[in-house]
Amino acid sequence: LSFFCLGPGAGQDVGRSCILVSIAGKNVMLDCGMHMGYNDDRRFPDFSYITQNGRLTDFLDCVIISHFHLDHCGALPYFSEMVGYDGPIYMTHPTKAICPILLEDYRKITVDKKGETNFFTSQMIKDCMKKVVAVHLHQTVQVDEELEIKAYYAGHVLGAAMFQIKVGCESVVYTGDYNMTPDRHLGAAWIDKCRPDLLISESTYATTIRDSKRCRERDFLKKVHETVERGGKVLIPVFALGRAQELCILLETFWERMNLKAPIYFSTGLTEKANHYYKLFITWTNQKIRKTFVQRNMFEFKHIKAFDRAFADNPGPMVVFATPGMLHAGQSLQIFRKWAGNEKNMVIMPGYCVQGTVGHKILSGQRKLEMEGRQILEVKMQVEYMSFSAHADAKGIMQLIRQAEPRNVLLVHGEAKKMEFLKQKIEQEFHVSCYMPANGETTTIFTNPSIPVDISLGLLKRETAIGLLPDVKKPKLMHGTLIMKDNSFRLVSPEQALKELGLAEHQLRFTCRVHIQDPRKEHETVLRVYNHLKGILKDYSVQHLPDGSITVESILIQATAHSEDQGTKVLLVSWTYQDEELGSYLTSLLKKGLPQSTS
Amino acid sequence: YEDLHTFELQAPTRVIEWAPGKRVCVAGYGWSGGNEILQLLPPPTLQAKETQGLCPERDFKVECGGFSNRPVYSLKHVPDTSLLVTSGPPDSSLQVWQVSAEDSDVIKSVSAIPTENGTGQPWAKIATISARAPWVLHGSRLNSVQITEVESRKNVYMAASRNSEELSGLAFLDCNTLLFCCAKGQLCLADVRQPQSPLEAVSVPPAPCGERWCVGVGRGPQGSDSSSQPVACLSSGGHLTLTDLRKTSESLASAKCRVPSPSSGAEFLCVSWAPALEGCLAISGFDGTVHVYDAQSWDSSGREAEPIFVHKGHAFGGWDSSGGPALVTVHTWHPQKPRTLLSAASDGSLHVWDWVQSCGKC
């Protein structure tokens, strides 16, 4: 199993994710993200790492995308249409529906607003999505005869999934971004005890202890309330899907509880689109949402109404949710321009803004913006930022490891030097190896494949007949012959193996000569030897046969006179290979000589 | 509340100690080993001058961590060094740790400071100072108090006392003056330069016996003599007495707090003076709350006092490992922000809170 990280960017919370995993000869690319901080080619992963001269389509068995965030799918059209890949691309249904919208949005900013040329086109996005195969949760998808994948719920955003990739009995689980605590509109990530050889987990927030959602929400509501109380207007630029739903539910509940009268608006385009997707993918939301949806339309709030452009000029307090989220164009930017000059107003940025957008500029502290036609806009309104992003922290990562029971853990998205403690923690608690490779570093993990072997019934019966009843918890030592033939493994008794292979069984017999000084007749020597052995070997069967030989178990002892010296007798001790131990013992015993006796 | 942050640690802590660079240290106190000692970097909201509600970073970052087999009952940072000292059962020895945040994020165990009495002794209370050298004052009973130089582990002072009273707390009032508080409530002073003179109680508690006491020493502004600050003693029955160490014959002031009798004895009793809010102190350890009092108006009558603020957050939290309601294990004040406190409870919660002063005085 080998793991190679083509992304993400160093240290920042938004890098680009792009991971290559080789498992039992299959090559899978996990995510294909864009780095939001760069304006040049550094924003895309360097695919030449994968293969210098081969075609990517031949090398890769499939590409898997975990969710629609640009740092996980932003480079996909570039990869499939500009670099060239025609194989299958797997993602969940919501991801497939939402990805192209985000990609198109991003393309518009980059090309139209910033005038970039080396970028993918709208048609490329469409062509790329044609290669996508959508999957359901917990559905095993056969990529080919040997490679199969399965998606698990990851929380985080609508449609986000963790993927299990399995070839034979080797498997890898890739988490993408996930969240172990449910929020108002999404559930928590969940996986079964699938015991993968490797769990690849994101660790952006691994060293963070997060402030509770309740406190974040409290402060958000406090800020909104304070602004509205003093007659100001609050603008919340949002992307159609994601945190907007959370915040709407939150505000609606708050307005109801506090009996507030100021209007809350949601731009129409937003409502319809969001409604459409949530209805379509209702199974991806949490229990509460599903229950609510059955009773009423999720966006028919009592206090939240559809927005009309003209309302922006209305006097008095109000709260408006408008797209797009980074204030780079459209309705949210229009409203922003109208309200920016009044310090009673507030804009709350919901998340990361790409460089070059107005959102990014004001978050960096800029208060004088150059708009079209060289007009300068002075920003007097309050600028706030809130981070409601849902990622797993250290506790969450431990929880996931406990659920999946992997044999090895690999952490991505973190800073290796600062993660030694977490590595030790994981290794100590779960007794597994924990890896934290850097960009461009290959990690190889050795797995213990299990090879099934058929055991013959005869051998099994024979072994169980010997000795005591086997203890079910203890391994039992067996003696057999392993035959590897025609891609099958069989364990049989040695006799059967010989028979099958058409080999004759050979018996090995050893004979040893022991010289004894004894002038008496042979039969008297034999009697002396017999009595001697009988006396010592009390636990063994020692017999004196009529033909003059002695047997000790199955070992034969015979005495003859020495050819040249009548005073010396030669004892022939003979045994089979199986009786080697007893045979050697007897020989050394006899070599010590016989006791003098008066028999 | 002006501001409220609630966090959940993986395991509950009974120590919250400030370390240089505005870091905070916490540690686990479980009996089955694997306790984590964590050095946390607080969110920028706690570091900024003004309260910023919606700050991008609202989270604690685990800067370094280490593992302790023993439960950690007490943790102190050693000034002018990158060392930490901890203590905990089953005996009164100390463990010394090295924190090297730049190279790696692991807090390593470097040495242990053993004590002669061996096992069976209660755990040692500790205080640190860096005057002539980095020192740690430690002991579990009056007759076993000593000062050890942390790096060399050399003993530099032994208290001359035959009294085997159990200690509930000790402190350096300045680089020469030591204060001891016995569990039964007696306060004793000692001078490091005069190790031979026997320790004598300078103050005895007025309240009925059977109660356990703990002490909180004020931190005067930089450069001032700590012994000019009154010392606060809190009993498990809710009695608070303030003593001026220069005039120990009579207690300066006292009051009674309306608190339930603590369910776990006096294990988590904690009293502390506000470093930036004149005359204010906080108590905890009786239940899931932290009380803040303004002691400036108190007299010596021992009347019941009304808190100026009660933090109830932990009472609405989870349950601790034994199934009981969460109990506040420790609290501490922010060194600069006047009304900001940090508190932790037995369910693993860690709260940072700042209350709105309604009367406008403080």
From TrEMBL, chain A:
<dbReference type="GO" id="GO:0004521">
    <property type="term" value="F:RNA endonuclease activity"/>
</dbReference>
<dbReference type="InterPro" id="IPR011108">
    <property type="entry name" value="RMMBL"/>
</dbReference>
<keyword id="KW-0862">Zinc</keyword>
<keyword id="KW-0378">Hydrolase</keyword>
<dbReference type="InterPro" id="IPR048662">
    <property type="entry name" value="IntS11_C"/>
</dbReference>
<dbReference type="GO" id="GO:0046872">
    <property type="term" value="F:metal ion binding"/>
</dbReference>
<dbReference type="Pfam" id="PF10996">
    <property type="entry name" value="Beta-Casp"/>
</dbReference>
<dbReference type="InterPro" id="IPR001279">
    <property type="entry name" value="Metallo-B-lactamas"/>
</dbReference>
<feature type="domain" description="Beta-Casp">
    <location>
        <begin position="244"/>
        <end position="362"/>
    </location>
</feature>
<dbReference type="GO" id="GO:0016180">
    <property type="term" value="P:snRNA processing"/>
</dbReference>
<dbReference type="GO" id="GO:0005737">
    <property type="term" value="C:cytoplasm"/>
</dbReference>
<dbReference type="InterPro" id="IPR041897">
    <property type="entry name" value="INTS11-like_MBL-fold"/>
</dbReference>
<dbReference type="GO" id="GO:0016787">
    <property type="term" value="F:hydrolase activity"/>
</dbReference>
<dbReference type="Pfam" id="PF07521">
    <property type="entry name" value="RMMBL"/>
</dbReference>
<dbReference type="InterPro" id="IPR036866">
    <property type="entry name" value="RibonucZ/Hydroxyglut_hydro"/>
</dbReference>
<keyword id="KW-0479">Metal-binding</keyword>
<protein>
    <recommendedName>
        <fullName>Integrator complex subunit 11</fullName>
    </recommendedName>
</protein>
<dbReference type="InterPro" id="IPR022712">
    <property type="entry name" value="Beta_Casp"/>
</dbReference>
<feature type="domain" description="Metallo-beta-lactamase">
    <location>
        <begin position="15"/>
        <end position="232"/>
    </location>
</feature>
<dbReference type="InterPro" id="IPR050698">
    <property type="entry name" value="MBL"/>
</dbReference>
<keyword id="KW-0963">Cytoplasm</keyword>
<dbReference type="Pfam" id="PF21386">
    <property type="entry name" value="IntS11_C"/>
</dbReference>
UniProtKB/TrEMBL annotation, chain B:
<protein>
    <submittedName>
        <fullName>WDR73 protein</fullName>
    </submittedName>
</protein>
<dbReference type="InterPro" id="IPR001680">
    <property type="entry name" value="WD40_rpt"/>
</dbReference>
<dbReference type="GO" id="GO:0031122">
    <property type="term" value="P:cytoplasmic microtubule organization"/>
</dbReference>
<dbReference type="Pfam" id="PF00400">
    <property type="entry name" value="WD40"/>
</dbReference>
<dbReference type="GO" id="GO:0000922">
    <property type="term" value="C:spindle pole"/>
</dbReference>
<dbReference type="InterPro" id="IPR036322">
    <property type="entry name" value="WD40_repeat_dom_sf"/>
</dbReference>
<dbReference type="GO" id="GO:0005829">
    <property type="term" value="C:cytosol"/>
</dbReference>
<dbReference type="InterPro" id="IPR015943">
    <property type="entry name" value="WD40/YVTN_repeat-like_dom_sf"/>
</dbReference>
<dbReference type="InterPro" id="IPR042795">
    <property type="entry name" value="Wdr73"/>
</dbReference>
